[in-house]
From TrEMBL:
SUPFAM superfamilies: Dimeric alpha+beta barrel (SSF54909). Keywords: Plasmid. InterPro entries: Dimeric_a/b-barrel (IPR011008), EthD_dom (IPR009799). It comes from Novosphingobium resinovorum. Signal peptide: none annotated. This is Ethyl tert-butyl ether degradation EthD. One of its GO terms (molecular function) is oxidoreductase activity.
Length: 110
């Protein structure tokens, strides 16, 4: 299982509509990507930095796919539609990263 992280930086002067993201974009993305192997999506919306100032990131979303090939195919087929929806909720371009969950790599007694 791979994890694709979409990180939305809180750049100076940027905006992010968390309600639109949660109620419109995320369900839209799930409907588009599920037929290509999307297992699940989890999103954390930034509330504040520890000192109470604005968060460094508007949001971090994690999408789980069985393989990198499945994600690549999903983006080849649906990426344009997903990115076309960006202006509806943000002025920043998400930074995408491929990763694995560290605990999945740790074996008992190792």
């Amino acid at each position: 299982m791979i994890r694709i992280l979409a990180v939305y930086p809180n750049d100076a002067g940027s905006r992010f509509d968390g309600d639109y993201y949660r109620h419109c974009h995320a369900p839209f993305a799930h409907r588009l990507l599920a037929p290509f192997g999307l297992d699940s999506v989890r999103t954390v919306l930034g509330g504040a930095a520890l000192d109470g100032t604005s968060p460094a990131y508007w949001a971090v979303s994690e999408m789980l796919f069985a393989t990198r090939a499945a994600f690549d195919e999903a983006m080849a087929q649906c990426g344009a539609a997903l990115f076309a929806d960006l202006p509806n909720y943000t002025t920043v371009t998400p930074v995408l990263q491929v990763g694995t969950l560290a605990e999945e790599d740790i074996k008992e007694g190792a």
